[in-house]
Write a structure and sequence with these properties.
By secondary structure, the chain is of the alpha+beta class. It has 5 helices and 7 strands, in the order αβααβββαβαββ. α4 links the parallel β4 and β5. The termini are far apart.
Length: 171
């Protein structure tokens, strides 16, 4: 049995639109308070955080919430912020502290499979830091990503490693 079939033998993660109207904001606020949103400034009040969420909503192409089963309960495990120029689609994933390595692999694979077959996306570009290469290389072994190269110094703390997958949109 191949890895993808084993990952989804009993169920799959649920990928749904992020509820900026308020339903998912408390989950994001909790992740912020735990220091899981690295790019967000520290010491924001709840009101400042809400303003930042509104700004993100205005500037991001799509935002997705991914839920999976953790200890028998379906809970949010990641949020995905996506940028797009109409052809290239670039997801940025923030995993919550409830996401185990197996759950990260499940959500990675499920999200890429969903993305790969969308007719509105030409190519999905994934940029990862060195500390997530092991997981990303596992996804590459499954045939869902192709290694493209690296940007030396692409992040303040190191390099960006670039992968891509061709999606269903045609010229």
């Amino acid at each position: 049995m191949n890895i993808a079939k084993q990952l989804f033998k009993h169920n799959k993660p649920i990928i749904r639109e992020f509820g900026f109207g308020g339903s998912d904001i408390p989950i994001l606020w909790d992740a912020y308070k735990k220091g899981q949103l690295e790019e967000v400034p520290e010491e924001l009040s709840m009101d400042q955080f809400m303003e930042l969420c509104d700004e993100i909503h205005d500037h991001v192409y799509e935002t997705w919430m991914i839920e999976d089963i953790v200890k028998g309960e379906m809970i949010p495990v990641a949020v995905v912020f996506c940028k797009s120029d109409g052809w290239q689609f670039e997801p940025h994933v923030v995993y919550f502290d409830t996401a185990t390595t197996r759950i990260k692999l499940r959500t990675y694979v499920a999200f890429l499979k969903k993305t790969k077959y969308r007719k509105t996306i030409g190519v999905c570009v994934v940029k990862v830091p060195k500390d997530t290469l092991k997981l990303t290389n596992k996804v590459e072994e499954m045939g869902l990503l192709n290694y493209v190269g690296k940007i030396a110094g692409g992040r303040p703390n190191g390099n960006d490693y670039i992968y891509s997958v061709r999606c269903n949109r045609r010229h």
